[in-house]
Structures are given as structure tokens and as C-alpha cells.
Design goal:
mainly beta, 6-stranded antiparallel beta sheet, single chain
Length: about 80
């Protein structure tokens, strides 16, 4: 089932399918390791719910919902 990254709940994992071509920070996300077939785990949201911490390639990265909504993952 393909969903946007921001739809993952705490502790759930997804495998990256694609990043939207319209994403304004697509290149930056790729530099951070958000590439096809990469597994990403949702760690925890901030107290207000935005940004959310994700585990990507062994590093914890905080992404805003508006950015993570551009990343399509296959829920694992």
C-alpha cells in the first residue's frame, strides 16, 4: 500500500517509492538519504505534531509535514 510519509504512525516503517517532482526540497532530501528503496521509520512527532522525527540510514532527521507529504512510501 503506497502512502505519503507523513501518514506513517509512530514506530511504522516505509520503503521510499518516489519523491514528488514538484517538491521544493527534493535535492536536499536526496542528499539526506531519502532515495528509492530506502527504509524510513517514523520515530516521534514534536509536541505540536510538526515536525516529525524519522530514522533514515541510521540518522534521525526532522521533517515538516509539508515536506514529508511529498515522499511516497510503501508501508512495511
Amino acid at each position: 500500500m503506497n502512502i505519503s510519509l507523513n501518514c506513517l504512525n509512530r514506530g511504522e516503517k516505509g520503503r521510499v517509492i518516489t519523491i514528488s517532482p514538484a517538491c521544493p526540497i527534493k535535492r536536499r532530501l536526496q542528499d539526506l538519504g531519502v532515495l528509492e528503496k530506502t527504509t524510513i521509520e517514523c520515530i516521534t512527532p514534536a509536541p505540536g505534531g510538526d515536525p516529525v522525527a524519522y530514522l533514515i540510514c541510521g540518522a534521525m532527521i526532522a521533517l515538516r509535514n509539508k515536506d514529508s507529504s511529498n515522499i511516497i512510501v510503501q508501508k512495511l
